[in-house]
C-alpha cells in the first residue's frame, strides 16, 4: 500500500511548548495563534522569502527567519508557513516562521543511491517538469527515468519538456516514453528571439505548481525567462566540447506565471538524482493497470524477479494490448534505483 502524503510530515506541524519558554504574547494566547499564512518562495542562507496574501490587495513579500520553536524541522520552497512578528514587508522588517503546514507533496532526493540522508527539494508542487535537450547536451535517458521515479515517489505528475528541437528530431526519443504515457512538450528557440512550443508549455503549466528540473545547459533558464517576463534567470553558454553548461543557477525559486497562470519553481541544474529512499510500491500505484495484477506476487516482490506475477498477468491480457511494453517500462524505472556507473 502507498503511504499517504500526510506520512511525509515527520515532525508534526503543531508548535510544541518550548522548554526554554518562548514567551507567549498574552497569558492565554500563544503567538502562533495570531500567525499570518504565507508561502515560501526562496531560501538563502537562513533567510526565507515568503509571500503573504497571495493574489489579494495587500499581497506583499516578507523576509523571515525560522523561530526557535520549530526545532530542526526543515523549511523548503513551496512550504505553506505561519508567520509572526513584523509581517509588514517593509524594508528592514524580519518576521518569524513558527509553523510549517502539512505538505501535500514532497520532492526528495538523496545525494547518491547509497546516501541515507534525504534532502527535500520542494514541497506542495503538482507537476515535475523534466527538462532535457534533444542535443547539445545529449539527452541522458537514465537521468530522465530517475526524475520520473522521483516524481511518482513525490506524488507529482511528470511532464517532459524537450528543448533544442531545432538541433534534433524528437520522435525517436519520445518512443521510449510512449508506453509510460508521460505527456511531453517540445520547444526550440527560433531565429526571431522567440521560443517555438512555448504556448503548449504554458497550457501544460496553467493553474498548477510545477517544478522544473534538468541538468545544466539544457535550456531551462531560457524557458523560465520566456515564461516569466522579468525572471532574469542567468543563462549559461554550453561548452561545445563537453556539452556542459556553467552552473549559473544556485537556489530553487518559485516564480509566478503571468495572468494567474500558476507557478513555476526553478531549481539549480542537477547532475544526479539519488533514489535510495524510494519504495517500489510508491511507483507501481501510478500503473493501475499493472498494480491490479500484483495480488499473486510473493511477499516483498520487487516486481522485477522471476516469481513476479505480473508476467502472467500481462500474458493473460489483463493489462490490455500495451501491457507488455508497459511492464517493460515499469521495470526499467524500477531498475533505475540500482546505481550504475555514470548516473
Ligand atoms: N539551439 C538551441 N539552443 C538553445 C535552446 N534553448 C536554449 N539554448 C541555448 O543553450 C544554452 C544553455 O541554456 P540555459 O537556458 O542557460 O540552460 P540551463 O539549463 O538554464 O543551464 P544552467 O543555467 O547552467 O542550469 C544557451 O546558450 C542557450 O542559448 C534551443 O531551443 N535551441
Ligand atoms: Zn511482482
UniProtKB/TrEMBL annotation:
Pfam families: RsgA_GTPase (PF03193). Binds 1 zinc ion per subunit. Residues 1-35 are annotated as: Disordered. Residues 114-273 form the CP-type G domain. GO terms for biological process: ribosomal small subunit biogenesis. One of several proteins that assist in the late maturation steps of the functional core of the 30S ribosomal subunit. Helps release RbfA from mature subunits. May play a role in the assembly of ribosomal proteins into the subunit. Circularly permuted GTPase that catalyzes slow GTP hydrolysis, GTPase activity is stimulated by the 30S ribosomal subunit. Monomer. Associates with 30S ribosomal subunit, binds 16S rRNA. This is Small ribosomal subunit biogenesis GTPase RsgA.
Amino acid at each position: 500500500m502507498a503511504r499517504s502524503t500526510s506520512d511525509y510530515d515527520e515532525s508534526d506541524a503543531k508548535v510544541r511548548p518550548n522548554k526554554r519558554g518562548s514567551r507567549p504574547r498574552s497569558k492565554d494566547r500563544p503567538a502562533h495563534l495570531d500567525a499570518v499564512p504565507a508561502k515560501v518562495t526562496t531560501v538563502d542562507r537562513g533567510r526565507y522569502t515568503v509571500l503573504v496574501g497571495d493574489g489579494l490587495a495587500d499581497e506583499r513579500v516578507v523576509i523571515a527567519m525560522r523561530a526557535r520553536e520549530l526545532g530542526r524541522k526543515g523549511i523548503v520552497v513551496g512550504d505553506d508557513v505561519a508567520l509572526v512578528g513584523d509581517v509588514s514587508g517593509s524594508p528592514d522588517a524580519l518576521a518569524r516562521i513558527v509553523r510549517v503546514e502539512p505538505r501535500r507533496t514532497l520532492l526528495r532526493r538523496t545525494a547518491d543511491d547509497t546516501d541515507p540522508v534525504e534532502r527535500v527539494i520542494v514541497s506542495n508542487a503538482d507537476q515535475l517538469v523534466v527538462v532535457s535537450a534533444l542535443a547539445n547536451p545529449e539527452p541522458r535517458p537514465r537521468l530522465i527515468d530517475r526524475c520520473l521515479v522521483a516524481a511518482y515517489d513525490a506524488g507529482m505528475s511528470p511532464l517532459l519538456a524537450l528543448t533544442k528541437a531545432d538541433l534534433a528530431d524528437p520522435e525517436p526519443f519520445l518512443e521510449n516514453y510512449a508506453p509510460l504515457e508521460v505527456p511531453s512538450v517540445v520547444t526550440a528557440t527560433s531565429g526571431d528571439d522567440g521560443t517555438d512550443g512555448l504556448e503548449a508549455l504554458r497550457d501544460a503549466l496553467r493553474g498548477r505548481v510545477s517544478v522544473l528540473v534538468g541538468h545544466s545547459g539544457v535550456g531551462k533558464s531560457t524557458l523560465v525567462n520566456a515564461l516569466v517576463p522579468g525572471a532574469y534567470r542567468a543563462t549559461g553558454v554550453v561548452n561545445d566540447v563537453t556539452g556542459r553548461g556553467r552552473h549559473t543557477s544556485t537556489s530553487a525559486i518559485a516564480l509566478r506565471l503571468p495572468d494567474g497562470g500558476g507557478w513555476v519553481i526553478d531549481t539549480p541544474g542537477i547532475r544526479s538524482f539519488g533514489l535510495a529512499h524510494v519504495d517500489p510500491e510508491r511507483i507501481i500505484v501510478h500503473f493501475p493497470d499493472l498494480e491490479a495484477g500484483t495480488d499473486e506476487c510473493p511477499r516483498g516482490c520487487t516486481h522485477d524477479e522471476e516469481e513476479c506475477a505480473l508476467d502472467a498477468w500481462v500474458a493473460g491480457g489483463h493489462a490490455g494490448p500495451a501491457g507488455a511494453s508497459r511492464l517493460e517500462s515499469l521495470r526499467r524505472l524500477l531498475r533505475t534505483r540500482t546505481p550504475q556507473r555514470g548516473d
